[in-house]
Structures are given as C-alpha cells and as structure tokens.
Amino acid sequence: MNYYNTLIQIAPDSAAKAASAPAAKGEKKTIPVLEYEMLSERPYFYTQEELQFEVDVRRKGIPDSEIAARREALWAEFFSKPHACLRTSSLAKTYGWGIHFDGEGKIGLIAVESPEYREFAESPHLQQTFAMRGKRVK
Hints:
Elements: E1 6-9, H1 31-41, H2 48-60, H3 64-78, H4 90-93, E2 97-101, E3 107-111, H5 115-121, E4 127-130
Helix pairs in contact: 1-2
C-alpha cells in the first residue's frame, strides 16, 4: 500500500497557488490537520500505512499506553478494512502540498510554490501521480 520514489502532485482542479496549513474546525482535530502536523513535525519519518494508523489512533483518542500494549492488534484491526491512499488527502487536493515518498516509502510535504516541487515534478527519477480531483469530470 505504500508508495516509493513517487510524487503525488496537487490535484489538477486544485485552486491552491501556495501551500497552507489546514485549520482546525472545533475541538477535535481533522484528518488533514493531523496529517499536516505529523508530517511537518517529522518529515520523512512515516510511511503511508504508519501515518494512516497514527492518525486513526489519535482521532480515536487511544492512550499511548494502550497503543504500546496493543499495537499489533490495533494495527491488524485498522488494516482489516481497506483505506484510501494519500491521493485522496486534502493536503494535496485543497491545501497545495505535494506528497513526496522517498526510496524507503517515507513521506515529506513539498509546497506547490517551491522550487523543490517543480524539481520533483519534472524529475525522471520519480514516479508521478496526481491527487484525486475534488469534483468529477463530466
């Protein structure tokens, strides 16, 4: 389920001209807020599966002690159902972040307006894909 040496470019219908941090809505952090916080605080630390799992347990408010004690069971339970890949992430659909996966499948965020994004988008050494469109094409 992880990507390797890949750039998920922003969605073709994204209005974002520059990357921005998603804003929290209410008390509970949204998935984009959690993804953004985790990936900005620890770039190239998480794989797609690790990020999705960590976002899920944080949203559910599972204490660290329980995660440590039951990690394998929680992991198996989470991945017993299919999950959408990061091509569906609002970070790349709405907020202007390219999602780069290195050779180990670790994730970094790349601002769409940055020279690094252009370099990665033009690189013959990276697989290129786009985030899912926000609206269906008719």
